[in-house]
């Protein structure tokens, strides 16, 4: 079944890329223009992926620690899958235990980011790729997952530093994918169809969080990282 899914995903990406490239060539009507467009969009050709540099983060200020490749699927988002939501999680454990779980190939799940109670942000999966975090394939393909260290029944775990750091992260994601800052596009894991999770739970302050995201959304955009961040030792 896993091989069939991989094949289907591959066919979907190849089909869309071939259609894009073929459409461009037909629209130009000349070999020269078609060649120029193919050169510009070379990474959309079947079997060719976007250039990647190991350890580079999508969010300035995040620390890179790679998740096990068993816990996510390589993709070329948003070109193969449109990103239209952010999903908020709570780890039900410590920051370090979440990192360890996402590095474990037997865990079979991981989110793109983890935010600590002290405001630190670790990225473990590139936003290009599909993280296994939502428990729903369609939602995985369309979303960025953010874990927050703590427990759903302990409101004291949701610190000011965590709210503010997470809001800045979500604001940048919303800006990157042109997402409205609302509860239709920023939702909790509990709202994903088919899931049995309850996070972020009743103590997560959605009104406060969305206000912080909106405020951060209008703030100047930080300079993106241009070199690999530190990796786990």
From TrEMBL:
Swiss-Prot/TrEMBL catalytic activity: Hydrolyzes the link between N-acetylmuramoyl residues and L-amino acid residues in certain cell-wall glycopeptides
Pfam families membership: Amidase_2
UniProt-recorded name of the protein: N-acetylmuramoyl-L-alanine amidase
EC numbers for this chain: 3.5.1.28
N-acetylmuramoyl-L-alanine amidase domain segment(s): 72-201
GO MF entries: N-acetylmuramoyl-L-alanine amidase activity
Keywords: Cell wall biogenesis/degradation, Hydrolase
Gene3D superfamilies: Peptidoglycan recognition protein-like
Enzyme class, first EC level, given as a word: hydrolase
The keyword Hydrolase is assigned to this record: yes
InterPro entries in the cross-refs: Amidase/PGRP_sf, Amidase_domain, NAMLAA_amidase_2
Higher taxonomy: Bacteria, Bacillati, Actinomycetota, Actinomycetes, Kitasatosporales
A biological process from GO: peptidoglycan turnover
Keyword Hydrolase appears in the UniProt entry: yes
Species per Swiss-Prot/TrEMBL record: Streptomyces griseoflavus Tu4000
